[in-house]
Each structure stands twice: as C-alpha cells, then as structure tokens.
Amino acid sequence: MALRVAVIGCGHIGNLHADIYKSFPLVQLVGVCDLRHDRADGAAQRLGVPAFYDAPSMLQALAPDLCSVATGGYEYGSDHYQPTIQALEAGCHVLCEKPICNTIPEAEKMVECARRLKRCFGIDFNHRFTPAARLAKKWVDDGLIGEQLFVNMCMWICNPNESSPYYMIKALNPHSMDVMRHFAGDVEAVQCFCKKGPGRTIWSNMQLNLKFRSGALGHLTASYDMARGHPMERCEVAGIKGRFVLEDMWREVTLYPADCLTKQVYTNPVFGPDRYRDFGDTFRVRIQTFAQLVADGAAPEAIDGSGADGLAAQKVLQAAIDSLEQRTIITL
Ligand SMILES: NC(=O)c1ccc[n+]([C@@H]2O[C@H](COP(=O)([O-])OP(=O)(O)OC[C@H]3O[C@@H](n4cnc5c(N)ncnc54)[C@H](O)[C@@H]3O)[C@@H](O)[C@H]2O)c1
User: Fold this and answer.
1) What is the pTM of this model?
2) To test the ligand 1 pocket, which listed residue (79, 128, 248) has its Cβ within 8 A of the most ligand atoms?
3) Domain stops at, among 77, 94, 119
4) Which of 5, 94, 95, 101 would give a disulfide with 107, using CB separation of 3.0 to 4.6 Å?
C-alpha cells in the first residue's frame, strides 16, 4: 500500500515537495497545509487534495505516514520546530527543510523527539543526492582519497534578502557544511571571518577555517553577493592517495589519483535516467530516497542526511557565529 504523505508549508518549496510526491507512485499525497489560507487553498486545488490551515488539524484528520515540513520563518528556519514536533508526535516520519532550525536548543529537541519516538527524521540536504556526489563519496569510502589532508568548499549564490545579521551563515550554509561533513566527518574547531557586501547590512560573505576531528583541514567560502547563472558550488577533497573536485553538485566530478597522470571524470550525461536537468532533480532524488527508505521500513539510523546531520551542521555554523563575535577560535 502506498505511503500516505502530507506537506506542511505551501510556499515555493512546499509546492515542489508536493509535486514530487504527486508524481512518485510509491506514495500518495493526501493533503497540504499552510497557515496562509490562500497558499493552502491554491496548492490543494492545483494538486487535487484537501487543504488545512494548521498542522494539528491535518495530522488528526489524515493520519499521514510521512510529512514534509517546508515552512520557513525567521532565518528561513524558525518555523520548522513546531510542525516537526507535531508531526513526529502524531506518529509521522518527517522530512524537514534545511536548516533543521535556526536555534540549537530547538534543533536538539527535534532530534531527541525523533529518536525517542523511533521515527525517521531527515533534512532536505539535496546537494548530496546526485550521481556525481555519490561517486565522490564512493571514492572516499573505497580508499581512493586515503588519509584526508584538506577540504575546500565554496558556495556562492545571489540572494539580496536582508534579514538577521546571520541569515547567510544559517540559511545558505547548512548545505555547504553538510557536503563537507558528508565527505570529511565531524568538525572539531572553527575560525570565522565575514564581510558585508556593498550596500548590505548582513554578513553576506564568509570565510571559515575548519579543523576536522580526523585532523584534516577545511576551508569554506560562502557568499550571497555573487551573480546569478555562474557556478554556485565547488567541493575539493584531497588526501594522500588522491584528490577530487566536485563541480556544481551534479555537473562534474574529477578524480586526480596521486602518482598517476590519468584522471577520471564523471560528467552529467546528456541523455538517460541519470541525467540531472536542473536543481529540481536534487529535490526529486532526495525526497524519493527518503520516501523509499521509509517504505522499506529502514531504521531511523539508516537515514542519509538525517536530523542528527542537520543538527551537527547547525552547531558548526553557530560556532562560526561565536567565532566572528568573539574574534577567536571555537572548539566544538
Ligand atoms: N533544500 C533547498 O535547496 C532549499 C532551497 C530553498 C529553500 N529551502 C527551504 O525551504 C523552506 C521553505 O522555503 P519557501 O521559500 O517555500 O518559504 P516560504 O516562507 O515562502 O513558505 C513557507 C510557508 O510555510 C507556512 N508556514 C509557516 N509555519 C507554518 C505552520 N506551523 N504550519 C503550516 N504552515 C506554516 C507559511 O505561511 C508559508 O506560506 C525554508 O526553510 C528554506 O530554508 C530549501
């Protein structure tokens, strides 16, 4: 029987989640909900499912198996806490948008709640759900990189929104931090510098120096001030045995083996099932992977891009903010 799925939050991203569920035969989209009646009604009409105006009513009426939480709020994350807890307590597995939450104590409670209730809890870390990123991870796991030395990551987009001073750090960089942690593991220490772009009141550019628990070194450049349409993401991981460069999530990944002048390159194919057409495909694969794991009865610990990963990423970003404010290195 198909998993019964509902979506909480009907902005652009919630509609995207709902469209993906609607087109995935493994699940049945049963309802949508938004505090804004116009948004809930618009999505419901478009998708042919009932509209609700608050999460508890929908959870009680429909008893879905799985919920996407695609709310936003302050720092694009303050509205995640309450509906995630409500959905978990109603017995749902939850896929929550990034950032897990804009405050650490609430994020901790979300992870603890899912653990206590033995529910699968994932974060929409869609950037790691591409064939290129998967291949890079396999190279790491197969020992082709060897003992890691350094990780360089860049994430640059254009986002003119002015919000809290730490909006760019907290709302953009869950992705970059997750990709870095995905390949290099937990972070031990953080040092941060930031710059406000011309005319901006928020910290819209960041340089982060990192030390991973493995001893590897990390560096992250992030910006909300870059032109649209150019590359937006690059991750380089170097070790004793080899180095890879992953370009724009799905576009290309290149392995440079040590002591060998022949490199391996995976390029997004022009045709075929593995082809990524655009950023939307990262959502499609991430969401379908989560739903498939839930349908297969996977253990909550088996979730790729879990709530615990979301919390760990956010703790590094909070340490970056503390480092910026205190002008010091923060140990996690
Ligand atoms: N994974 C990605 O690549 C990616 C990209 C962009 C945005 N996002 C994330 O997606 C989320 C949504 O983004 P958006 O642009 O659609 O936001 P949005 O603010 O346009 O929409 C969020 C909607 O949630 C509703 N809402 C808030 N609290 C609610 C509650 N308790 N119950 C029901 N509805 C509630 C709001 O009324 C609003 O309509 C954000 O958290 C953002 O960080 C992720």
Assistant:
1) 0.97
2) 79
3) 119
4) 101
